[in-house]
Design brief:
By secondary structure, the protein is an alpha+beta fold. The chain is globular. It contains 19 helices and 19 strands. 40% of the residues lie in helices and 17% in strands.
Length: 679
């Protein structure tokens, strides 16, 4: 599932902190708004990578309406069409605010109706209907009447009641919890501010250009800056909201959540206890700034979170975790090394592993000309020296989960392995192309090397991996990377800021990393669904294309790939981990393929029991196969520390990566080819 943010709030802005809750305010078109739309269009037409696109008024209003009512459960088809017909001018802000007022009024009406439905439910037998609801109505037709919408909302709230009951709540407690959720929805609606509506509308325009082009209101700007600075205390996670549910967008490398290993990208946070002794508060349908307020707190204090893992096929299969809050420090993001020992007939191999969670630099120390400023390239260079002294047979550079950072550091780090040559090409919005990186340099490490990537390797990680692949310096192993090959900058407006895409990256071979990412030479088992995560999942993302190649001198380190691939494929196909991941994917796909949900408590209870049994069977089969104790029941599985299995699977992945590198060592001796070698 793509990252679909709650469009009632600011589109595409991820909040790390909000110290004060907004008060209720009257919704009005502020005088500050009037010049901003024109400013945005002028800047984008002049400077955006896709400049001078034609602004279609109907597409803008369609975006706005769809963002308001994505599931098509608020406006009738007639109302939707009337709004389309009335909207003639992208500067008609009064019309936009009238539409939102209609949306707000209708939403209050529907919540009140759902409350009445809940109050009429006296026993669980009232939830045994013969009807079904769609998992998603995005691709369905709009309802023709308000009565049809209300009938659907009655089924929706009954289904929500069933979900709470299936989470082992008794009837009265479930009813109380559901009524509280409805109150939260009313509260969230009442706290919508004029800036939220204006942001939603302006981003209905900017989204026509690409998903990384966004308007930032003054409040959103402040949150964005907090995000970038990582200066405040919390768990080190970037959050968004989708359909009223808070989701993990990114874990800050070295932050408390990242180091705990308890949270993953796309996990859902449905409950928060700001202190361990507090009861967990249900945060479904809360504003994201309110959720963040609960999660944040002084360092060294603990917060409990009720989490539904991304890997869970059902939103009712959650667990409670505890994380100690803290500051994200530069040293926590630092590159670290370890070794993997692989025994083969007649020889044992020592493979060094350098884990690089981000491309970092202490810019403050660098600007003050401090000699010992901290940076990823300096740290990796020191680790390489240590590994060479320890006489490792090869090095794995682990970029899994590395979402990027300093491009300068990516260039500097590439220099350690490649030496001379450019690393990347950059195309400006005017079409000019410039190679970046270095034309000369010292190759600090000449031995065998591999880069390990996954779907969360993005931006600078993709530039480095793409350079390695083009220069044939080492194999790229893992899964397709994220696919972000664009650069954004911020520009001040008379009210707020505009973040827009102005450049696009291309590899030295002329290939783009945009959308497709870097395709690995050898795939490893990966549990994430590639359609859920990555640039390709975002609407209006810029397309893949290519340009002319630079002249560059490759190495010969990645010949015999087909043979190395076949060896790895055989090992992986026979591995317990591969079977485990395959089972998980099949189970998840079976659940996702179900388009209709029965609004029947007894049927759903039976389905849940079967689902739990299947999930427990998959987990226990893998645990037994690798010598771990099986879970006695499903509850023990839910309560288990996920790190035990994570550590085990991580060990298996690294060992296979090491074996691939050993095959590469045995087949290839890294040597730079001269121009005469490839005439």
């Amino acid at each position: 599932m793509a990252f679909k943010l709650n469009k009632i709030l600011v589109l595409s802005i991820y909040f790390l902190a909000s110290l004060n809750l907004p008060g209720e305010e009257s919704l009005e078109v502020k005088s500050e708004y009037k010049p901003v739309v024109n400013e945005i269009i002028e800047i984008l037409n002049q400077n955006h990578f896709k400049k001078n696109i034609e602004i279609d008024e109907q597409k803008v209003i369609d975006n706005f309406l769809v963002n308001l009512d994505k599931e098509k459960i608020v406006f009738t088809s007639g109302e939707f069409n009337s709004y389309l017909a009335r909207f003639k001018n992208i500067y008609s802000l009064n019309e936009i605010f009238k539409i939102y007022q209609d949306y707000s009024d209708r939403s209050f009406e529907l919540i009140s109706f759902q409350k009445d439905v809940v109050n009429l439910i006296s026993t669980s037998s009232d939830l045994n209907t013969t009807e079904f609801i769609e998992k998603s109505r995005e691709d369905e037709k709009r309802f023709n009447s308000l009565d049809s919408i209300k009938n659907y909302h009655a089924l929706l709230i009954k289904n929500e009641f069933i979900n709470i009951l299936l989470s082992n709540d008794d009837f009265e407690n479930a009813k109380t919890k559901l009524l509280k959720r409805l109150k939260n929805r009313i509260k969230s609606l009442k706290r919508i501010k004029s800036d939220d509506i204006f942001s939603l509308y302006t981003n209905s325009i900017t989204s026509l250009y690409d998903p990384h082009t966004n308007y930032l209101s003054p409040k959103s700007q402040e949150d964005f800056e907090i995000n970038m600075s990582l200066s405040l205390e919390g768990i080190g996670a970037i959050l968004s909201t989708e359909d009223g549910i808070t989701k993990i967008v990114r874990l800050i490398p070295g932050g408390p959540a990242d180091k705990s290993g308890l949270l993953k990208v796309n996990d859902k946070i449905v409950g928060v206890a700001s202190l361990p002794e507090n009861d967990i508060e249900d945060v479904r349908d809360w504003r994201i700034d309110e959720v963040v307020r609960l999660i944040r707190g002084p360092k060294n204090t603990k917060v409990r979170l009720e989490v539904i893992p991304n890997s869970s096929p059902d939103d009712i299969l959650g667990r409670v975790i505890e994380i100690t809050r803290g500051l994200v420090k530069l040293e926590d993001q630092a590159a670290k090394k370890k070794k993997v020992e692989i025994y083969k007939p007649n020889k044992s191999y020592n493979i060094g592993v350098i884990d690089l969670p981000a491309f970092y630099m202490d810019f403050d120390a660098f600007s003050r000309n401090q000699f010992n400023y901290k940076s990823s390239s300096k740290d990796v260079r020191n680790l390489l020296r240590e590994l060479k002294e320890e006489q490792v047979d090869g090095v794995i550079l682990d970029l899994r989960g590395n979402s990027g950072g300093s491009l300068y550091e990516a260039y500097s780090l590439a220099k350690l392995f490649i030496g001379k040559g450019s690393i990347v090409q950059v195309m400006e919005s005017n079409g000019s192309i410039q190679p970046l990186g270095h034309t000369r340099g010292i190759q600090n490490y000449e031995g065998p090397v591999m880069i390990l990537v996954d779907k969360l390797s993005a931006s600078a990680s993709e530039i480095l991996a793409g350079a390695f692949q083009d220069y044939k310096r080492g194999l790229i192993v893992g899964s397709n990377t994220f696919g972000k090959g664009t650069v954004q900058r911020l520009e001040n407006l008379s009210y707020g800021q505009l973040k827009f895409t102005e450049q696009k990256f291309y590899r030295v071979s002329g290939k783009s990393t945009q959308n497709l990412g870097v395709i690995p030479d050898i795939n490893l088992p990966y549990v994430f669904d590639s359609e859920e995560v990555g640039e390709m999942a975002l609407e209006n993302s810029l397309p893949y294309d290519d340009i002319s190649s630079l002249e560059y001198e490759p190495f010969n380190s990645t010949s015999n790939i087909e043979m190395i691939q076949s060896f790895s494929k055989k090992r992986v196909s026979d591995s317990n981990l591969n079977e485990y991941i395959k089972d998980q994917k099949i189970q998840n796909k079976n659940e996702l393929d179900k388009k209709l949900i029965p609004v029947n408590f007894l049927v759903r209870k039976s389905e849940k029991r079967a689902q739990e049994e299947k999930r427990l069977f998959i987990e226990n089969r893998f645990r037994v196969s690798v010598g771990l104790k099986p879970y006695l029941n499903f509850q023990e599985f839910l309560d288990a520390d996920p790190e035990e299995l994570n550590e085990f699977s991580e060990k298996m992945v690294l060992e296979e990566a090491a074996r691939i590198l050993i095959d590469q060592i045995n087949f290839n001796k890294p040597k730079r080819l001269s121009s005469s070698d490839f005439r």
